[in-house]
Amino acid sequence: MPGTLATASDPARAEVRNEAGGLIIVLAGDWSIENAQPHLRELLGNATVGTHTPRRLSFDAADLGEWDSTLLIFVARCQDYCDAQKLELDLSAMPEQVRRLHALAVAVPERSQVAVPAKKSFASRMGTSALDAWRDIQAAVTYVGEVAIALGGLFTRRVHMRWREFFVVVQTNSSGALPIVTLIAVLIGVIIAFLGVVVLKRFGAGYYVSYLVGFGMLREMGALMTGIIIAGRTGAAFAAELGSMKITEEIDALTTLGISPIEHLVLPRVLGIFVMMPLLTIYADIVGIVGGMMVSALLLDLSFKQFTTGMLQAVTISDALLGIFKGTIFGFIVGVSGTMKGLQTGSDAGAVGRAATAAVVLGITLIITANAVIDWLSALLDI
Whole-model pTM? Predict the structure, then answer.
């Protein structure tokens, strides 16, 4: 470090003089890390003893030799002492580089420790959760209303939809979704048939496995499993697409130009999946029944005619229509939940992933809830 060069190592020394109006610390010797440093508390212990109360702390560095960071530490401690005693620190007699380094040190504010908030009580947490849930319900109802108004405006020709985007959604969820729907539907039909064979064969009623497969696929599992598949496949895609557009401020640009994001982005997606879900449900029903038929043929030696005849004796057209109706409702749920979570995406790096996850969770939850409600109503109405 720069300073006054000394020809020999000289121990660091300091003494305090109490003059009228202030204290003067006389520095001498080499203030380096190799030498022992004077203690500030010992120097200033009796500094205030006298007839005059000090108002300023200054230095006399005429005999100061070499110095390094230890001198800066000593000056910093003097600054703390002055702040505590409400004294003025005068560094005019110190070397220029000491003054500059000290000014740089005091210019950087100390980091204040963030106070840890007190833990909320159970009642407070429950109240906060209830208010958050109520706000989410209000936002969801408002969003569904906006989508419904846009759909109504489409039929009255007051809303112009992007038909190209609509057909892209239709194509993506028709031929693009067939492989996964085929695999899951076949496996569900096979599982239902296996369960029927294991249980009914014990009572010598293996023939009635066709009842179980037909009733289970047409009324329940075909629509339910297709809805869950599409919620994980298409609902997440809707949320990710709109979430990316939200982060890149494309949706804000559309709003600035006077273009409604609901009409321009949401409506084609919701209507496209709404149209395709009944068709995918019918396809899943057929594939699942074929899977159950193969198991029946292998394990029970039932022919195609026997299986079909037995199924038609128990299954009615109302069962198939109920499944198709469920698929239609599930399609609307997937479209609305996916696009809503996409438009609600935050602005941080992980917001798109969280939006896609939330869309899948919300979609599957609403699908299962809607399925239970529809089954309950159908039981009341004897459908």
Answer: 0.66
